[in-house]
Design a protein that fits this description.
- Helices cover 39% and strands 20% of the residues.
- The chain is α/β, with parallel strands linked by helices.
- The chain folds into two domains: 216 residues, Response regulator (Rossmann fold); 159 residues, Response regulator (Rossmann fold), CATH 3.40.50.2300.
- Helix 1 runs parallel beside helix 11, helix 4 crosses helix 5 and helix 11 packs across helix 12.
- It is globular and about 65 Å long.
- It starts with 6 loop residues before the first strand and ends in a 13-residue tail after the last helix.
């Protein structure tokens, strides 16, 4: 087992004692764990692996004089499978850091393991804000977004821009539940109301019964508290049922470039959604998008760019400290701001939340678009301190 440290129980947190100032077993091994074949495969999947590979290539495949190895696996959106892979990776394959982990239930299961076994977890795909709340860990960094930030971006301006009455179509697991609860609170705080909600299974092929309930609610906005293939399917079928034509606005709470590409601008135009990254932010973000597009033929999602950024910052911390011990690596990551293709002036907090600006986006019309991946425009930039939950409000014991 890599590293060492007496394990001390402190509330729900297990804190290793001291960092070991060396690269354990002579290499740094990175494991990308995500959905390779299900509804989140396009926004995470092999694309996240390629994004991490870009980060490794940028440092020449070595850090602190030691080689970097990359492996990946499909957790199939099942927490038990994710936990099994994480345990094997750590105990048998000597993985130092696990990256991405979409599906909040899977991310929480893996976080429990990495906390107990003193390994770094860099979450880019998992969205529940619980990861940096009551379940926070000294070896976790949640990098890209969370349900609190998505809700703030959409809820604060959504009532004014889209209407006061909202109905939820919510995916039935931890991520969807958290997103519905967080956004409902923000809507009510800004003068909106929740007309109702219905929950659907993950990877649903038929939304007809759910959409009919949303339609009958007569809510101004039908909010999709889901992601990936579920979002795309719901929007396509909403068009067929005539929800937009009858005056109801479709609002996605998590939308990715490949989703918009699959839908086409005619179906998706005008759709409003929150995002943590956009390719035209500056020259650095444009360069990353160009390099990723050349490798994959697709535009990266914020999750994939976030995976790149988190690993790049992690490798920089190891280079600085000369050690891959988990708590020490995370502590070193907190000392430097995040300035790269993903974020400018980002900061990793003690609760594990990396805070950065977020964006309210809108899908362009065909007339506005200048090319196949020129899909969306920025309606508003939400500063980091407004987008993310205050450090003292999440219930993380590390913040005390």
């Amino acid at each position: 087992m890599k590293g060492f440290g007496a394990i001390v129980l402190c509330g729900s947190l297990l804190l290793p004692a001291m960092a070991q100032a060396e690269i354990s077993d002579g290499k740094v091994r990175i494991g990308v764990l995500n959905d390779m074949s299900g509804p989140y495969a396009e926004s995470t999947g092999k694309g996240s692996v390629e994004a991490v590979r870009i980060a490794i290539d940028e440092v020449g495949g070595r850090v602190a004089g030691k080689p970097i190895e990359l492996i990946s696996a499909d957790h199939q959106n099942k927490p038990d499978i994710a936990a099994s892979i994480a345990n094997k990776w750590i105990d048998v394959e000597q993985v130092d850091v696990i990256v991405d982990v979409p599906n909040s239930a899977a991310a929480l299961a893996v976080q429990d393991i990495t906390r107990r076994k003193n390994r770094v977890l860099l979450v880019s795909g998992g969205g529940t804000a619980q990861l940096t709340g009551t379940a926070c860990s000294p070896t976790t960094a949640q990098w890209t977004y969370d349900t609190y930030a998505l809700s703030q971006v959409m809820g604060v301006s959504g009532v004014k821009r889209l209407g006061a009455s909202w109905y939820f179509l919510t995916v039935d697991y931890a991520f969807g539940h958290a997103l519905e609860a967080d956004l409902s609170a923000v809507l009510k705080a800004n003068g909106g109301k929740v007309a109702g909600a219905v929950r659907h299974p993950l990877n649903t092929p038929d939304f007809s019964s759910y959409l009919l309930q949303a339609q009958s609610s007569r809510a101004n906005v039908v909010a999709l508290a889901n992601a990936g293939a579920d979002t795309a399917t719901a929007i396509k079928q909403a068009q067929e049922f005539g929800l937009p034509q009858s005056g109801q606005t479709m609002a996605s709470l998590l939308m990715f470039p490949t989703d918009i590409q699959a839908l086409g601008l005619n179906a998706a135009q005008g759709l409003v959604y929150p995002d943590g990254w956009f390719a035209d932010r500056d020259a650095e973000s444009q360069a990353f998008a160009k390099a990723y597009l050349a490798r994959t033929g697709k535009m990266p999602s914020m999750i994939q760019v976030g995976a790149y950024s988190a690993v790049r910052h992690y490798l920089r911390a190891i280079e600085t400290t000369g050690s891959d011990e988990a708590i020490g690596a995370i502590a070193a990551m907190r000392k430097e701001p995040v300035n790269d293709a993903f974020a400018k002036g980002g900061q990793l907090r003690v609760d594990g939340r990396m805070v950065h600006d977020m964006y309210l986006m809108q899908v362009k019309s065909q007339a506005e678009s200048k090319g196949p991946w020129d899909q969306s425009k920025v309606l508003a930039t939400i500063p980091a301190e407004q987008a993310f939950r205050p450090l003292d409000a999440g219930g993380c014991p590390l913040a005390k």
